[in-house]
Each structure stands twice: as C-alpha cells, then as structure tokens.
Design goal:
By secondary structure, this protein is mainly α. It is about 65% helix and about 5% strand. Strands 1-3-2 form a 3-stranded antiparallel sheet, with helices on one face. It starts with a helix and ends in a 10-residue tail after the last strand. About 20% of the residues are buried.
Amino acid sequence: MPVPFGEIGIVVALLIVCLVALMLVLIARREAAAQREQATIDVAEIKNEARALLADAERRTARLSEREDELAAERRAHKELERELQARASEVAALQERAALAMSEAEQQARELLEASAGLTTEEARAELVRRTVDAATNEAAAQVRRAEAHARRTAEAKAKRIVATAVQRAAVATSAQSSITVLRLPSEEMKGRIIGKEGRNIRTFEALTGVNVLIDDTPDSVVLSCFDAERREIAQVALESLMADGRIHPQRIEAAYAEAVASADERTLAAGHDAAERAGVSGLPTELVSTMGRLRLRTSYGQNVLEHLVESALIAGAIAAEVGADIATARRAAFLHDIGKALTAEQSGAHAALGAELARRHGESPAVVNAIAAHHDDVPVETVEGVLVQAADAASAARPGARREELDQYVERMDKLEQLVTAHAGVRRALAMSAGREVRVVVEPSEVDDYALPQLAVAIAKHIEADLAYPGEIKVTVVREIRASATAG
C-alpha cells in the first residue's frame, strides 16, 4: 500500500527541523567554547593586573614607611635645635641685661661729666637743643615757603597774563570815555538855518523843551548837544534826528517830535537791553531784566558807559572761562548782569551789588550767577570759579587805557589813602605809591622786621588793600628792608 504524499512531506519537514536544530546546537557550542576561552583570557589578564597593583601598593607602603621614619628623625632633630636655641636665647638675654646695666652706668657717668663741664643740667640742655632745632626748622620752612611762593607766583602770573591778554584781545570794543556832549552830523549846510529858525525861534523852543544846549557854529557840518543829564541828551538827540529826517522844523513840529521821543523812551530802553544781551551772547533773560539793563545805557562810571562795560565784561569773562575750563555760559551771564544794581541805586538804598543780586534772585537766576553778582566787589565771599572770573573781567574792562577817567582831586585822595593804609602796618617806616597807584614801595624798620617776615608782611598789606581800597586793575606791593652801617675814622 503506497505511503501518502502528505505524510512524506511531514517527515521530511521534521528531518529538516532536526537538522537545523542540530546545526544551531553546534553553533551554540562553538560560541560557548569561544566565550569560555575569552573569559579564561580575561581572567588571566585581570589576575596579572591585580598582581601588578598589589606589587605597586607594596612598594608605596614601603616608601611611606621610609618617609615616616625620616620625618620622625627630623622631628627629633628639630626638638634638639629648639632646646639649643632656647639655651642660647637665655644666654643672650642675660648678656643684654648686663650690657644695659653697663650702658646705663656709662650714660650716667657721661651725663654727670657733661653737666659738670658744660654747666647745664640735662633738662636745660634738652631745652636748648629743642630751641635750636625749632629755629633751624622755622628758618628752613620759611626759605622753602619763599621759594615755593616765588615759583608759584612766576608760573601763575605768566599763565594769568597770557589768559587775560588772550581774552582782552578777543574783545575788540571801544575804550574812550563818554563825555557830556553828543555830536550829530548834518545832512547839509542849510540844515543849520532850519534848526536856528527865524530870529532863533526854533532853537530856543528846542532848548526850552529838552533842557539841552544846542551848539551849532562850533563845528562844521555838525550840531553839538550839551547837557550833563544823559537822559535829556538822548531825548534831544532822538527828537533832532527826527526833525532833520522830516525836514520840517518849526515850534509845533519840535513839540511833536519831542513828545514822540519821550513816548518812545521805554521802547528804546528795551531795544538797548536786547541789543546788549545779543552782543554779549546772553539769552533767555526775563523782560524786566532786559529793560533794567537797557536803562544802564544812560549811566556812566568814571566816564565809562555802564552798559558797554557790561557787554565787554561778558565777552572777557567768557573768553577767560574758555581758557581755564569753567562754565562759559554762567560766566558770561554773571558778568553781563554784575552791575545791574546800578540802575536801581537812585530808587532804592543799598550797595549796587546787593541790589543786583536780589533782583537776579527774584527773577530766577541760578545761585552761581546771584553769588557772582553779590561778590564782584567782595561784599560777600565768592563761592564759584565763575564769580572770580567776573571780578577779573570787571577789573580788565575798567583798566583798559582810556576806558575811564579820574579827576585830579580823586586821584590824589586815592594815592594818599593807599599810602596811609600801608603805613598803618607795624614795622613800616615809609610807603610810596608809584606808577599811578599800580605799585606801592614799602620801606620797613630792619630792627622790627627780619628777612623771614618780609613775605608775610607783603601778603598782609596786599590783602588789606584788597579789603579796604577800591581800585581798577591790580596793585603790586614791594617790601624793602635795608641795613646800613657807617663809621668815621680820625
């Protein structure tokens, strides 16, 4: 009976499976053998490494034991050295005690011998030594101070002169003093006849209204207005210029021109203030301050127009501030406003510096500007560098040649006051004002003032002059000490 085909297939499949399983078993055995061999090799390597580490540890242990033995030996040596040092220190201390005792005995003997030979006790000798040391130190210090002051003076004067000269040269302004007259150019020669009028009616009317003398024949092609009142002279100038521009000159027209000139006075004041502020480089001023500044166009000080002086001072202060690194805007503003109080002195009592500072404070000016205005004549202490620059600019503007004039009586009085102020100092024999009051020579009594006191006396006199004497520019103080000895033979 034939075998079914399906059973044969199953048998073949089982045989194939058995074969595959047998092959897998063989492969697994090979891999296990290889792993066992590799494990054996790894174990051998680990054993070798462990043996090497063990040997290294044994070597390190041996070296550590040797090092400990060496340290123990060193400790024993250090202890022996310390004991030896302590013994020697005890010996040194004993020697020092014996030496100190011997020195004390020697000093006592030397002191007794010195006192016996010199005739002075120890306290007296010490006091004499201290006195001589103090005298020597004082003389040396005075010499050092003189040298330092001389060097500082040379350096400071040279730098200050350079800065002031640079600032003054940059401010190209007029320096001629104002007088009590105003000169008007005539457009033509026939204008003189119109101004005089028929039988002199026009000129008499004009002089009666304005209170100004009109001088026509003194100068060709010009008319001179003469009056000590600057406000009247300005009104007359404006009215006459208006009449000459219109050409119609008669009593009724003169009255109308005069009324217009009087009515426009406030406008001219404000315009003058704005123009001066613009020329000085100062902006942002309140209208009341500008108007007050404009009033100063009619004010003079020793013949110098105050408003022009303020513009010049502002330009000089700004230039100096730029040279020394100060605040240029503050310096200009303070210098421009420093004499604003002069416009108020006719209405209020008090010094113009204090009045100007109070006015500036009320209108919101900065504390630096207010202090510079109040301190420009040293009425109060100066608190800022800009305040010092305002003082310098004020003096530089007033000291320009031709800027101011001074009457002879006032000049003589100032010279006498300067000499009397200097001779009031102790030790001064005689004082002589020189160079129009720019220098004062001081001769001292040599028995009362020594050489070391000369610098201090010169500084004291200079500070006294600054505090009590009003003057433009600067005054140089030279102190002279001279000793003369004479003898007659025969």
